Amino acid sequence: MSHPERVLGLYPHELSGGMQQRANIAIAIALDPSLLVLDEPTTALDASVQSEIIAILSGLRKDHKTSILLISHDINMIRRTCDRVAVMQSGTVVESGAAGDVFDNPSHAYTKALIASIPALNYTKRNGRLAETDGLPSHSAVQNEDAGRRKERRIAIACKGISHAFGSQLVLSNIDLDIGHGETFGLIGESGSGKSTLARIVTGLQMPDAGSVELFGRTVAPRVEKRSIGERRDVQMVFQSPDRTLNPRKRIGRILGRPLRRLAGLRSSEIKARVSDLLQSVRLAGATAEQKSRSLSGGQRQRAAIARAFAGVPKVVVLDEPTSALDVSVQATVLNLLNDLQRDKDTTYLFISHDLRVVRYMADRIGVLYRGRLVETGSSDQIFHGPNHPYTKLLLAASSDDAAPKIISQADIAAGPSQGCAFAGRCSLAVADCWKAEPPLSQAGDEHLIACWRLDQGS
């Protein structure tokens, strides 16, 4: 960490996610242990910060001769980090060996299924469904039409000049974006870039300092309490952790029944049958209605949270890291489920994730946020094939299978200019002019916009 004396005087909530994780690692290595056990150390971190943590761990192994037991559902990270690997299923090690051998030539059926469940950076929902390992029924092909190529594009959600700050810290700066009806719009960026704040503003859980949100061409109130019942029903949210959505003291049937009564206007006699239909739509047994969330697995809880969001038949669903805490097989089930529900209901998704493989698979269009600025927007193909903003290139490089872990100086990250391009302090292409004025979004192709003064060189 840069400026360690200053960091020592800060509280944990004043640190970014990546810095919090580095502080945890510092605590763990304070006594120079022979063995360091890391349980999902990068689950909530974006690709670039994850790459930093991997580099730090690699340095510890070399400098301190520390042995590391790394527990993770991120198979790509395990492949890049570990010498040997063991695969567990239901409490039993079903396969073990050198990491390269296990992942390149898996012998056990469960290992093969796990690897098949991982989306590739060039694999989208138009290529087909993700492999599932839990024996759930397969549905028909995923969406049959690319939303970005529809002849008539009706705008479901539009953000107009959204800006927000927490105290003196600017979180969002003049965000303009629109999401088409029935489209999945992916939102990517580092921790602290403003993704979740924008999601909360769209749903009315957070008021912006400036700007407005439009729903199907009509401006809605900034606070959800001031929105009409229809507007509340039309925009729902699925949180990263289902524990933020599901009351642990209530049975699932009652949790689902409340929005059916208050948003859908169903009578008590109709609710039970509708709860059963909702559970079936997310591939949960009818008996789940009598269970409490603590008795469900993580994947089951997240599916119940999705059922709650869809209870009022919303037109827009905001998904904030809905699969980051799930293993790859459960993740595949949830992603396939979301695509099935979208196809059946023609629902619009704002999909937030730090996993670029998941975003590539799900999104029709993508926006890239950096320090509250929208630095690039375009179709999924345009974002992943380029040309790109230098920051987008950094994210893509950090997510590639052969990415070399690098530690990014926190001094560089903290040294963004008060005016000019927010990325100038980390950009290898930056020149003096980049520090003088913030670049506007410029055309890099058909509806492909990039905010960079040196767009030709950045591509």
Task: Summarize it.
With 459 residues, this protein is α/β, with parallel strands linked by helices. It has helices spanning 4-8, 17-28, 47-64, 75-81, 99-104, 109-116, 195-203, 229-234, 252-262, 268-281, 298-310, 328-345, 356-362, 380-385, 390-399, 410-414, 455-458, and strands at 35-39, 67-71, 84-89, 92-98, 155-166, 169-180, 184-188, 210-215, 218-220, 235-238, 316-320, 348-352, 365-370, 373-379, 441-445, 448-451. It is built from 17 helices and 16 strands.
List the helices and strands and how they pair.
Elements: H1 4-8, H2 17-28, E1 35-39, H3 47-64, E2 67-71, H4 75-81, E3 84-89, E4 92-98, H5 99-104, H6 109-116, E5 155-166, E6 169-180, E7 184-188, H7 195-203, E8 210-215, E9 218-220, H8 229-234, E10 235-238, H9 252-262, H10 268-281, H11 298-310, E11 316-320, H12 328-345, E12 348-352, H13 356-362, E13 365-370, E14 373-379, H14 380-385, H15 390-399, H16 410-414, E15 441-445, E16 448-451, H17 455-458
Parallel strand pairs: 1-2, 7-12, 7-13, 10-11, 11-12
Antiparallel strand pairs: 3-4, 5-6, 5-8, 8-9, 13-14, 14-16, 15-16
Helix pairs in contact: 3-15, 9-10, 9-11, 11-12
